[in-house]
Amino acid sequence: MDQELNMRFMEIAMKHVQEGRAFLNEKGIELDMHDLQPALEMLMSVMNEAYNMGYDDAKKE
């Protein structure tokens, strides 16, 4: 994965972490940043795959 793109995805993810933590806390699930790391990595993979899918679609047009 491109390092610059990875950093941009991380910035987006971090912008929404508090919202995600609040949602989980409302459900009675408490997570610290160490626990959130695997979820953030999965989110980064999803964002990268979606980006590549959009990029490939744009190349076709």
TrEMBL record:
InterPro entries: ComZ. It comes from the Bacteria. Pfam families: ComZ. This is Competence protein ComZ.
